[in-house]
Amino acid sequence: MSRSILISSVLHFILIIITAISLPFLAKKPIDLPPIVSVELIQITDKTNIPFAPKAKKTIEKIKEKEKKLVSEQAPPKKVKKIKPDSIPMPDDNVKKVKKIEEDKQNPEKIDNEVKQVSEFEKKELFDPNNIAALIDKSKVESSDSIKKTNKVSQDQDKNIENSGLSLSEEDALKAQIFGCWSIPLGLPYNENLLVRIKLELKPDGSIISSEILDHARMNKPGQGFYKVLAESALRAIKLCQPLRVPSTGYERWKDLQLNFDAREMLEG
Amino acid sequence: MIKKIFLLILIFFPFNSHGLIKVDITRGNLDPLPLAVSPLAIDEESKKQFEKILSKKDIGSEISIIVESNLKTSGLFNPLDKEAFLQKPDIANLKPRFEDWKLIKAQALITGKVNFVDEKLRVEFRLWDILAGREMMALAFTTVPTNWRRVGHIISDKVYERLTGEKGYFDTRIIYVAEEGPKTQRVKKLAIMDQDGFNNKFLTLGNELVLTPRFNKTSQMVTYLSYFRNLPRVYLLDIETGTQEVVGDFPGMTFAPRFSPDGKKIIMSFAKDGNSDIYTMDLENRVVDRITNHPSIDTSPSYSPDGKYISFNSDRSGYQQIYVMESNGKNVKRISFGRGLYGTPVWSPRGDLIAFTKLHKGKFYIGVMRTDGSGERLLTENFYQEAPSWSPNGRVLIFYRETKTDDKGEGFTAKLWSIDLTGYNERQVKTPTDASDPSWSSLLSN
What we know:
- Chain A folds into 2 domains: 44-163, no CATH class; 166-268, Fusion Protein Consisting Of Minor Coat Protein, Glycine Rich Linker, Tola, And A His Tag, Chain: A, Domain 2, CATH 3.30.1150.
- Chain A has 15 helices and 3 strands.
- Chain A has helices at 2-22, 24-27, 44-48, 54-74, 77-87, 94-104, 108-120, 123-126, 129-136, 141-150, 153-164, 168-181, 225-241, 251-254, 264-268, and strands at residues 195-202, 208-213, 256-262.
- Chain B folds into 2 domains: 33-164, TolB, N-terminal domain (Rossmann fold, 3-Layer(aba) Sandwich), CATH 3.40.50.10070; 173-440, TolB, C-terminal domain (Neuraminidase), CATH 2.120.10.
- Chain B contains 6 helices and 31 strands.
- In chain B, the strands form 7 sheets. In chain B, strands 2, 3, 4, 5, 6 and 7 form a 6-stranded mixed beta sheet that branches. A 4-stranded antiparallel beta sheet of chain B has the order 10-9-8-31, with no helix packed on it.
- Chains A and B meet through helix 1, helix 11, helix 12, helix 13 and helix 14 of A and helix 1, strand 1 and helix 6 of B.
- Strand 3 of chain A pairs parallel with strand 1 of chain B, so a sheet runs across the interface.
């Protein structure tokens, strides 16, 4: 009796462990995506370089020269160290980056490039509320750094994109391209289901190897003549647009793509 | 035992698989579709025969011009310049070189040929999808040579339907009141023409005042109002045979007779004992039924396409507004609540919208609203315009517009105009004289 209970409990235990390992919702916590903060980068010098009156010009140039001296004298390397890891989290070695920025300190163009690179990254991935708190409260700097060490940006999160689909910017680029190519047939009945799903097989350059309408059977159903018109318009859009604007990397991720064309929103509006 | 555990592990092991990436496309452009209408190919012998009969040098080219013009006026297509075509019509009709047509940015191509067969005109045409590189449709028509314009309209309808998903409206006619003379002494005749303004014919001589002609949607029959010895009379006119019959003399002011959707009744308003109400008349037994009974002025009745409801305008709220009721006169509901006066409601053949005329701050508008009064959209504004009538597919409205007279009482004109539901594609419909009160027929080829 006790033996069978033991075997049963051992087997149950194994089963629980297997379940815990295998079921992803138990193993992984759901990714809590912070809100996306959009940042517009403006060259401040373009906005502020207003020509001065000739008399004032000389005095301003003098002040500028003084300021230049002050800046070169006062620029302490420590400050850069503090700003760098919070604003430019790169997957590479931290020390190398510190050196780079120190080198570029006097070259505003290069620093601009660095900042732009940040904005072009996935903002949702880089945005870390703890870091902002750390900027305000220096006591949190260490903790945020330690989190960063464990949460290395690039590789883990790239995998995440692979699983979830295209990044927002990649998806937007593709959508914007197809919007321009799709001439919506205006005579469709907008109170019907106007969704056409097309599965595509793509080449690495974005051109189409094959396209398949997933609800093909609906095209020949009685009373669904409008669906054929809609599906054909969607196929025309894809052919007109090709090669599609797909990411330059990660071909395996998007070589099979499904486009869901829905005309209802446009026709109802 | 170990095997079983291994099997269990295999079953529950999380395999890393790629999900299919899905992208939702919810927007597109509403630009006109670029298409090429190649002139229809014709052999020399047929060309000579048609030149004798129709006095047209190249009937194939003439038909393609009709198709091109129809598709262009719809506002949904952009026919490309023929000068840019790289392939000759006779070869294109056999097998288009899709690359050549892609080069000039055409997305669709119409080709065809014309033959003189047994004293008749035989036209075949094909519609090609340039981007997909395949034929979408191929049809042939045989008719008497004098029907060549209609063939052009029918081809336009077929292409329109295949590319937009709704029926066309090109093989149709418009009946209207042709007007001539100074404003105070207008001579008004009944006239009919193709929807593109060609083949204009006068149906009455102008001895009597004619008003509000309306097509029967099920046949080529027209009802209109005429004053005979200063008394309003409702007439029925068969366009095909030219026969005319008096439906009845009605007392007082009579307005706008209109057919029911099945064509068996006429609905109108007339004043009895000084009060205008809505009545129907059965065309078989001439029995008149009273539909509304209200001390206010009820006019301009129009049936819904299923015949279950009637829209009309009434001043029962103090101002002229649009109302909807069941066809037996019950459940009257006001549907227009905007500022201004609303009149001449006309139910769309699709059944989803009601077109109307609105007067607000001295300006006239043609607009549409849903049948419950929501979603009011004003399509066009002018000094004076009214009487909208729907195209048979419910996409375009035709109406008439008058201009102001100057200090000398001159400069007055009345012209027909059309506008589509987008409100952007507004065009004047050319008529030989001034024109008012248009009514659009249903498709002739149905």
